[in-house]
Amino acid sequence: MRNKNRGKDFCMFALPGMFCFFAVVMIPFIYGVYLTLTDWNGVAKVKNFIGFKNFAGVLRDGQFWTSLGLTFKYVILVVLLVNVIAFLLAYLLTRGMKGQNFFRAGFFTPNLIGGIVLGYIWQFVFSRVFVNVGEATGWNLFGVSWLSDPTKAFLALVMVSVWQLSGYMILIYVAGFMGLSEDVMEAASIDGASGWRKMRSIVMPLMMSSVTICLFLTLSRAFMVYDVNLSLTAGAPYGTTEMAAMHVYEKAFTSRQFGLGQAEALILFLIVACISGIQVYLTKKKEVEA
Amino acid sequence: MKQTAIGGNKRKAANILATAGLIIIFLAYMFPFLMVVINSLKQKRDIIKSPFSWLYTIKGLSFDNFVKAFTQMDFMNAFKNSLIVTVSATLLVTLFAAMLAYYIVRHNNRISKITFALMVASMIIPFQAIMIPLVSIYGGTLNMLNHRITLIFMHTGFSMAMSVFMFHGFIKGSVPIALEEAAYIDGCTRGQTFFKIVFPLLKPIISTMVILNALAFWNDFLLPSLVLTDKKLLTLPLSTYSFYGTYSADYGTIMAGLLLCVIPILILYIILQKQIISGVVAGAVK
């Protein structure tokens, strides 16, 4: 009976979802690999096959490597800061103090709002509010807008990203802390473990599965940062805060070098995939079960 | 006995210190939002003079900024567009992903296995690695850009892999096959079994996926910016972007506009806070 209905079942249940997935993800992905071998400019009817010239072009595109280097710096700072801050705050938020649910919900708020709006809010804070503080107090730190100085604009971008992402990671670490078994903690106390010792030998190993998730999420999000980059600095001053994802966008849609842009996008994808893969492998190895 | 008392005092002191620290950090986190709220009611001159308080304003406080932002952003239209796109894409992806996942779990054939493996693998592909060919296929060859339905279709496709993965795990773990067999014996067709028996059982995972997908669709900027350029079709993040481009020096109006974008989500968050938080955690941990 089931065999007779096989085709009908497939069409009814599997086909709609598969169609959407293949048409939007798989086919463009494969077509994208082909695009890297052409010199298409986005408008022309003809695409000339030019072999691996685009990849040679990527090697020569100095700006791509600058933005990639900047992205690496950004990712390292963001991943470290987000996870340290979120871990500590989550620890504080699971000690049973009053109103901890309110705090958790509050810290998460930035994640409900799109990166574009967040970037604009912070642009106002950096360019008006902080400058105003500088004028009132005479602090040089806030004398001129952070966004007009390359180093400080970069730090501003890091700050906003940390602010946004840490609220999300707090929730995951909180879930991890809540999952720690009371028995194990009690046993450690009875055995005479001090607070620090407990943290290092009991809490940390048991929290490794949360750490794996949080590192993975922050890594992949930080590498692909675009919205906040666009609305906070838009690459300014003079393209010094242009991250890799934004560079790819500019290459394809502003300079109209689709093949080159796609080659850079694929290289970026491979880098992210490798780094995330290594990270998950390394942290998974450290996971233990209570 | 004595030792616990000392420990208790120490602990109390540490707790007070931790709470105080936490409140300070929390206020620092909320500071940008506070600035937006305060300055949305003020005029430009007062904002430049002092962005910090409602006191000492020359022109006073008013809702003028909101009126201006509301009309200039064409807020109702953008809101409507965002709502249509988010609701339809969320419904479609929930339905299609649940059905596809159900098919994959119950039919252990080659198509299921390959599709599922491809989907799991595709989850690491970032959107930026697909956007260029996506635009060249749908913009060039098919000429389908600038339609709401195209955006809805693309949102559906992009969130399919993750959604199928989540539904797959849930169906495999907690939908007993015996229930379906009983339904067949009672004369249900495949479709009836799915919609009357299986789908209702998926409620917990459906609410998780609806929250995750709807939030992502509502806030997405990059994909809609590639698909939609017609002013009438812009979603909220897109119209915020173009609005900011035009009025970036008019601080009061900008702040009011940004606040208008945030308010609908905040209201929803206040109502559904528990579900949203547990949905986000469940989505990440799996």
TrEMBL record, chain A:
It comes from the Bacteria. Keywords: Cell membrane, Membrane, Transmembrane, Transmembrane helix, Transport. Pfam families: BPD_transp_1. Its main location: membrane. It is a multi-pass membrane protein. GO terms for cellular component: plasma membrane. The chain crosses the membrane at residues 12-34, 74-93, 105-125, 153-180, 201-223, 265-282. It is found in: Cell membrane. InterPro entries: ABC_transporter_permease, MetI-like, MetI-like_sf. One of its GO terms (biological process) is transmembrane transport. Residues 68-279 form the ABC transmembrane type-1 domain. Belongs to the binding-protein-dependent transport system permease family. This is Raffinose/stachyose/melibiose transport system permease protein. It comes from Lactonifactor longoviformis DSM 17459. The lineage of its organism: Bacteria, Bacillati, Bacillota, Clostridia, Eubacteriales.
From TrEMBL, chain B:
InterPro entries: MetI-like (IPR000515), MetI-like_sf (IPR035906). It comes from the Bacteria. The keyword Aminoacyl-tRNA synthetase does not apply. Residues 79-272 form the ABC transmembrane type-1 domain. The chain crosses the membrane at residues 12-38, 83-104, 116-139, 151-171, 197-218, 251-272. It is found in: Cell membrane. Keywords: Cell membrane, Membrane, Transmembrane, Transmembrane helix, Transport. It is a multi-pass membrane protein. GO terms for biological process: transmembrane transport. One of its GO terms (cellular component) is plasma membrane. Belongs to the binding-protein-dependent transport system permease family. PANTHER family: ABC TRANSPORTER PERMEASE PROTEIN MG189-RELATED-RELATED, SN-GLYCEROL-3-PHOSPHATE TRANSPORT SYSTEM PERMEASE PROTEIN UGPE. This is Raffinose/stachyose/melibiose transport system permease protein. It comes from Lactonifactor longoviformis DSM 17459. The lineage of its organism: Bacteria, Bacillati, Bacillota, Clostridia, Eubacteriales.
